[in-house]
Amino acid sequence: MTILVTRPDQAGIELTTALSAAGRAAIHAPLFTLAAGSELNLLPGYFSRLNPGDWIIAASGHAVSYAEQTVEQIGGRWPHVQYAAVGRSTALHLQQACGQPVLFPACDETSEGLLQLPALQTVSGQQVLILRGNGGRPLLAQVLRERGAEVNFCECYQRVPLEYCGAQQTDIWQRANVNLLVITSGDILQQLVALVPDTAHHWLTSCRLVVVSKRIAAMARDFGWQEIVISDRADNRSLIAAVEQFE
Q1: 6: CB partners within 8 A, 6+ apart
Q2: CB-side exposure of 164: number of CA atoms within 13 Å?
Q3: Which residues are within 8 A (CB) of 115 and not within 5 positions of it... i.e. 6 or more apart?
Q4: In sequence order, what DSSP letters do the residues of 63-122 get, joined into one string?
Q5: What is the Cα–Cα distance from 134 to 89, expressed in whole angstroms?
Q6: Residues 6 or more apart from 22 whose CB is under 8 A from it?
Q7: Is the pTM of this model over 0.90?
Q8: What DSSP letter does each residue of the chain carry, written as one string?
Q9: Mean of pLDDT over the chain
Q10: pLDDT (tens digit, 9 = 90+) per residue, 105-134?
C-alpha cells in the first residue's frame, strides 16, 4: 500500500514523515501551497470595531497562524471577545494565540457542527469576524446572518494551486502503486480530479480514500469513490488512525 498525502505545507510533510516512520510507504504531493491572504492588513481595523460579546471564529489552523503572525508583527493584541473554531486542533491553536477560551464542536468538527453550539444560537445584533482562507464555504456566514449577526470575513491566507503535468504526475503515482489517498479539503479533492486525465479516472476512484468530513465523503461518492473512511478529526494523529482502518 502506497499512500498519497495531499495535505499542503508543513502539516502534510509531518503526516508523510509519520506514516513513513511507521513503516508505510507515503508520498507527499500537495496540490496547493499557502500564502498570506490579501486582507491581513485589514485585521487590526476589524479587531478595533469588535465589542465584548462579539465573536471571532477561526475556520482553520492556517487562518490562525497567519492572523497570529500579523498581530505579533504590529505589536497588537487579540480583542476581549468570544472565540470559536470549527475543530479542536484549530481551537487549541487559537486559544494559545489569543489567551482566551475558545468554543468548538466536540463531535462534528464542521461548520454544521459549530452552528449547533448553544452559544451561537442567539447572535442577533452581534458582530462576527470569520478568519479563513480564500474561497471558504458560505454556510457559516449565511446561517449567522439569518440569525441576525453582522458577519465579516478576513482572508488570512490563500491557497495557491501548484502546477503539475497531470499525465506525468499520474504515471508517477501509478508506478509507485498509490492506492490510498488522504484528502483534507473539498478544494483538494476537486483539484485532484481535475488533474488526473480522464483515461486514469478509473484508477483514481479505485483508490481507497481518507477524508475529514461527511461533506467531502459525499463529494467523493459523487465522483465515483466507494471505499471511503472519514477521519474522526482533521489532525494528523486522527488521519493516521483512519489510514489504519484499511489495514
Answers
A1: 12, 29, 30, 31, 181, 182, 183, 184, 188, 192
A2: 22
A3: 139, 140, 143, 144
A4: HHHHHHHHHHHTT----SSEEEESSHHHHHHHHHHH-S-EE--SS--SHHHHHTSGGGS-
A5: 20
A6: 240
A7: no
A8: -EEEE---HHHHHHHHHHHHHTT-EEEE--SEEEEE-TTGGGHHHHHHT--TT-EEEES-HHHHHHHHHHHHHTT----SSEEEESSHHHHHHHHHHH-S-EE--SS--SHHHHHTSGGGS--TT-EEEEEEETT--SHHHHHHHHTT-EEEEEEEEEEEEPP--HHHHHHHHHHTTEEEEE--SHHHHHHHHHHS-GGGHHHHHHSEEEESSHHHHHHHHHHT---EEE-SSSSHHHHHHHHHTT-
A9: 95
A10: 988 888 999 999 999 999 999 999 999 999
Q: Which residue has the cell 485532484?
A: 192
Q: What confidence tens digit (pLDDT) does each residue in 34-77 have? A: 999 999 999 999 999 999 999 999 999 999 999 999 999 999 99
